[in-house]
Design a protein that fits this description.
Layout lengths: L4 E3 L1 H7 L5 H16 L4 E4 H13 L4 H11 L3 E3 L3 H14 L3 H13 L3 E3 L13 E3 L6
Parallel strand pairs: 1-2, 1-4, 2-3, 4-5
Helix pairs in contact: 1-2, 1-3, 3-4, 5-6
């Protein structure tokens, strides 16, 4: 089963950042849409880990983070595996990405996503069938 879009960590963090202004509104709409269409949405364990670390670092409790992470589990969650890691290494070399970005791309590919929502990748770039959408550039 494939998911249409993959959410990068920054989308989730902005959705829960009350100080993020317009970015919060845009991210919140995307997250709400994801909750309305959980079968079309994917994330990875890496995204969950990054969300937890940054959410707690911003002053929230680990209990609050855990509740939100539980909510995210309605989406398809791609596990970190040796196979995924090897694919990430291939993509890192192919696209000249950081390992962390390559792992996001590998997880999106594994999920069958065709769209990667992120502000950290080159907007509009097509990574072999996965197109990057930066919702903050074109809300």
């Amino acid at each position: 089963m494939s998911a249409s879009w993959f959410l990068d960590t920054n989308i989730l963090l902005y959705a829960y950042d009350i100080d993020a202004g317009a970015k919060r509104e845009i991210a919140l709409r995307r997250v709400e849409e994801a909750f309305l269409h959980p079968d079309q949405t994917s994330i990875s364990v890496q995204v969950l880990q990054e969300f937890h670390v940054n959410f707690v670092k911003a002053g929230h409790s680990t209990d609050e983070a855990a509740m939100i992470l539980s909510d995210f589990s309605v989406w398809r969650v791609v596990d970190n595996t040796w196979t995924l890691f090897k694919k990430g290494l291939e993509l890192q070399s192919r696209w000249q990405l950081s390992l962390w970005d390559a792992m996001i791309l590998a997880a999106a590919r594994h999920a069958g996503s065709t769209e990667l929502l992120s502000e950290d990748f080159s907007a509009g770039q097509d990574y072999g069938g996965i197109r990057v959408l930066n919702p903050f550039l074109h809300p």
